[in-house]
Amino acid sequence: MSVEGSMASEVTDDVPPPLELGRAAGAPLYAQIRDALRHQIDSHSLPPGAPLPTEEALQARYGVSRSVVRQALGDLADLGLIVRQRGRGSVVAPRPEHRRRADRAGGLRQQVEASGHHLRTEIVELAVDEAPSAAAAALGVTDTWRLERIRRVEDEPLVFMRTWLPRELFPHLSAEDLDGGSLHDWMRARGVEPQGGPRQLQAVPADEAVAAHLDLGVGVPVLLLQGVTRDEYGRGLEWFTAWHRPDTVFDVDAHVRPRSPGAGGGEELGRVRELVQELALLLGTQSPQA
């Protein structure tokens, strides 16, 4: 085994999984290393605060010069993904957590701005489209608008949303109507009052479209919030799927269910019956003059 191969085997545990650098693929070597490390950061394989492999370890692992490694790390630092410390190496930069209520319909802007950040909405696409089966079942129609938006916090993508709205309720809709604003506020301005509805939250891998919109690697786990919003009459106003970056924290205000009247009643009822029987025995043993 060569000295270089020996060094590579010693640092295997400290670096990302093996990467075949495509020297003839057109992408610069530093960019390929940068993207491999970025995928590790986005997928939380390298969580915030974790040290990156040393420059020497990366050189040995990828078989490149130190200048190539430094250029890759410099790009990651410029993107705000790592912090370089003289004499101490590089660590993954802390990412701010964005919190929202899982049991609250809408109100993302208020929740984000309450934490001192600014939320911006970008319209990706608005088109007339046939609702998928789940949306059609929730809305009761197949003739819908398909609205795709990215919600950004300080220009960083936070959530990618795909929403279906019934055209019979909202026959006139344009991207200009919603650009930068709240969909629910737009509904209220047209005399429709959103009330809420059931939601589901689960972790799913990001597909190519979601990964591109959220600036993540394909397959990175994201949080999918899915559900329907209805008005006070029970009409379906929107059916949506919203993919959140993995640094989103959903808060839930949980309550313990109060004991029902019958809960634990078996033991209490049995004790009451015993007391009644004891009382009947006592009364039966007493003389009429007592």
Automatic annotation (TrEMBL):
Lineage top rank: taxon: Bacteria
UniProt domain HTH gntR-type: residue ranges: 27-95
GO process terms (BP): negative regulation of DNA-templated transcription
InterPro entries recorded: Bact_HTH_transcr_reg, Chorismate_lyase_/UTRA_dom_sf, Tscrpt_reg_HTH_GntR, UTRA, WH-like_DNA-bd_sf, WH_DNA-bd_sf
Keyword vocabulary terms for this entry: DNA-binding, Transcription, Transcription regulation
GO molecular function, a single term: DNA binding
Entry protein name: Transcriptional regulator, GntR family
Species whose genome carries this gene: Geodermatophilus obscurus (strain ATCC 25078 / DSM 43160 / JCM 3152 / CCUG 61914 / KCC A-0152 / KCTC 9177 / NBRC 13315 / NRRL B-3577 / G-20)
